[in-house]
User: Which sequence fits this backbone?
């Protein structure tokens, strides 16, 4: 990205042949088209409304080499992986190191019948034709440079298929590891998760780093939830201090389906999530449950959008943020209710807790309603720890740091409580404690 | 550090010329007070006279600009001690207006706080079983149902329930210097007796109490060794328990200080 390094265009020219699935004409066109649009528009700038508060100019001065240009990814010790698993949970595990599936570190032996977890790279190379609809149908509401680059460079990711009526009792753990290679790497991941009619599963996208070296992760996850199906989707980010993470999450829901997103953003120098949920079948429900924890100079930006296209759908959104040090948070929650979407029930709430005077949050809930018989609400709050409560706790012998931790835990409690997977809940509680101890 | 001839852990509170202000507003204007181990002192005084401010300053509230010729507990300078340190040294404030703490249960508060105090005393933390046994015994003491333990501290508690919760905390922590800031206000007559029982159970040669109240009724249950009248940030009169009765009958008007007396406490009783 630096002036001396190769531009995305040059990189694309030299890597194009090595990208998976290049035997498929539709995929080549898809990639070429995306790169073409990128070369016309470039990276987003603060002049773009959706990027007003997230300035990536400093990031563009650093150079990252696409991980797929390396012969092979760095060796990661199984112990480093074991340390990142959810204790005692025995979940099926797919590990990706610097954007590449690592079969040796993964354990997919115990997958229940009707449930498939595979490497996207492998799929694209062997039976890519089956992926055409999934990869071409969903487009982001406001495509930007990172998404175009993701389409152009996507080289691996998880393909998860929950067959009709199939049920995954235990969550599927997708672990994305940034190895901390000397050469800062950029990985381009694309995850495809689809749940067939009446299927039910929980999938955990989990992003970690080994160390604090600079890295760039560009990921897009597409979820298709068919009629009567249910997906609990966790996206947990606890990458290291040098990590930059740009993620798109696109969800399409059919009739009577249920989608629950738990989005915990806590790691890395910069996190940007674009989450878009389309309620396309009557009776569909989505819950967006979010928690962002940032300290130091971290920057976390969540842009969410829910589109009610048809009648009788329900959406709930609860996002909470805790910002310390000189951290900066951005929340944008957009709910649009189309003209046909009568009897929509949409609620959205964003609460923020600022732990220092220098921390900042920009929050923008937006409702756009074109139907007349709907029930919608939205709101946002920004507050600080109540000094009277802090004093009360200290007057009971509890030291200040611990009192603050108690109160932050209490603030985030409902978001954590909504996570139905107990191991993830325990992880989140621990994470909150650990972040505040620093 | 124990002083020869006193019960172990017994500490004296010494206050000389304590002044507290918020910005230009002077609230405490030279308080002199000494509380020895085993003593119960009642403080009465009109609304706004500075009683709660004194209590808060004792507990370590940092809202005020404070000066004093002496302000010490057990020989240690209180101004050099954080609120949590004071609490661990045995100072307990039952708040006039206990705060609500959404998301933190009473049981969590009690456990955190008891363990902090125990660690400070070099005692082992209680395990979950022992802790619960202890707390349930104390709950019975204040006649509260167990479900209160699992509700957020004081959230949607009635006024009286909040006060009972303060008494519960006092009973669990067994402080050496308990400051009860109008703990009796809002209590029904049964709870008032529970409060008196709670204090009676703790009362002993090594513990002392500051009881702030508007009603001499409480002092029939908790019989004080001394009664002080606070007015405009000064102790204007001190005496025995009969002083509380005088106040009950005559109010505070008769105590209006003469201009010349400013800054000097009146002679006791
Ligand atoms: N933080 C503060 N800022 C400004 N003024 C304050 C502050 N705290 C107390 N005061 C003022 O100091 C005076 C004493 O208040 P305090 O609460 O100590 O009175 P009190 O004797 O406890 O009264 P009451 O009997 O009504 O409880 C009052 O006039 C009050 O308004
Ligand atoms: Mg008061």
Assistant:
């Amino acid at each position: 990205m630096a002036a001396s390094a190769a531009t995305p265009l040059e990189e694309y020219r030299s890597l194009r042949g090595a990208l998976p699935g290049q035997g498929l004409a539709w995929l080549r066109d898809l990639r070429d088209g995306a790169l073409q649009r990128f070369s016309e528009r470039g990276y987003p700038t603060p002049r773009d409304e959706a990027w007003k508060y997230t300035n990536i100019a400093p990031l563009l001065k650093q150079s990252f080499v696409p991980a797929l240009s390396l012969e092979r990814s760095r060796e990661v010790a199984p112990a480093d992986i074991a340390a990142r698993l959810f204790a005692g949970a025995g979940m099926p595990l797919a590990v990706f190191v610097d954007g590449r599936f690592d079969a040796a570190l993964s354990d997919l032996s115990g997958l229940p019948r009707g449930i498939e977890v595979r490497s996207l790279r492998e799929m694209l190379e062997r039976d890519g034709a089956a992926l055409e609809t999934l990869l071409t149908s969903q487009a982001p509401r406001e495509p930007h440079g990172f998404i175009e680059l993701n389409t152009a460079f996507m080289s691996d990711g998880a393909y998860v298929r929950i067959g009709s009526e199939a049920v995954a009792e235990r969550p599927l753990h997708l672990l994305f590891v940034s190895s901390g290679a000397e050469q800062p790497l950029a990985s381009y991941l694309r995850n495809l998760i689809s749940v067939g009619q009446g299927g039910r599963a929980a999938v955990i996208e989990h992003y970690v780093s080994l160390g604090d070296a600079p890295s760039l992760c560009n990921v897009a996850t597409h979820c298709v939830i068919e009629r009567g199906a249910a997906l609990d989707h966790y996206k947990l980010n606890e990458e290291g201090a040098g990590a930059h993470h740009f993620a798109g999450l696109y969800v399409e829901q059919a009739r009577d389906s249920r989608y629950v997103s738990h989005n915990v953003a806590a790691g890395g120098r910069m996190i940007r999530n674009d989450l878009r949920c389309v309620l396309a079948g009557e009776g569909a429900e989505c819950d967006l449950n979010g928690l962002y924890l940032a300290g130091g100079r971290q920057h976390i930006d969540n842009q969410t959008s829910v589109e009610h296209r048809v009648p009788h759908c329900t959406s709930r959104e609860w996002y909470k943020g805790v910002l310390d040090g000189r951290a900066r948070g951005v929340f944008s929650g957009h709910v649009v209710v189309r003209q046909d979407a009568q009897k929509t029930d949409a609620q959205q709430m964003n609460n923020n807790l600022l732990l220092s005077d220098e921390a900042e949050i920009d929050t923008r809930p937006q409702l756009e309603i074109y139907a007349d018989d709907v029930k919608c609400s939205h709101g946002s709050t920004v507050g600080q720890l109540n000094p009277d409560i802090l004093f009360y706790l200290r007057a009971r012998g509890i030291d200040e740091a611990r009192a603050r931790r108690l109160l932050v835990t209490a603030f985030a409690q409902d978001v954590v409580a909504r996570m139905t997977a107990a191991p993830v809940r325990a992880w989140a509680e621990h994470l909150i404690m650990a972040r505040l101890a620093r | 550090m124990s002083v020869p001839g006193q019960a172990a852990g017994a500490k004296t509170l010494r206050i000389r010329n304590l002044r507290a202000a918020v910005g230009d507003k002077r609230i405490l204007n030279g308080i002199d007070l000494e509380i020895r181990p085993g003593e119960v002192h009642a403080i009465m005084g009109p609304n706004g006279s500075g009683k709660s401010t004194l209590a808060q300053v004792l507990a370590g509230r940092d809202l005020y600009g404070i000066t004093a010729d002496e302000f010490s507990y057990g020989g240690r300078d209180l101004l050099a001690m954080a609120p949590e340190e004071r609490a661990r040294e045995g100072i307990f404030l039952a708040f006039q207006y206990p705060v609500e703490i959404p998301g933190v249960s009473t049981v969590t508060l009690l456990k955190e706080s008891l363990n902090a105090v125990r660690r400070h005393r070099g005692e082992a933390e209680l395990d979950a079983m022992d802790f619960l046994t202890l707390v349930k015994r104390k709950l019975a003491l204040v006649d509260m149902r167990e479900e209160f333990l699992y509700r957020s501290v004081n959230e949607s508690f009635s006024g009286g329930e909040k006060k009972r919760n303060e008494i519960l905390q006092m009973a669990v922590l067994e402080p050496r210097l308990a400051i009860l800031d109008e703990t009796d206000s809002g209590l029904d007559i049964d709870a008032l007796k529970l409060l008196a029982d709670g204090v009676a159970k703790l009362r002993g040669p090594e513990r002392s109490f500051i009881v702030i109240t508007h009603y001499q009724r409480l002092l029939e249950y908790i019989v004080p060794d001394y009664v002080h009248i606070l007015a405009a940030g000064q102790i204007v009169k001190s005496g025995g328990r009969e002083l509380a009765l005088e106040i009950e009958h005559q109010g505070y008007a008769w105590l209006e200080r003469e201009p010349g007396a400013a800054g000097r406490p009146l002679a006791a009783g």
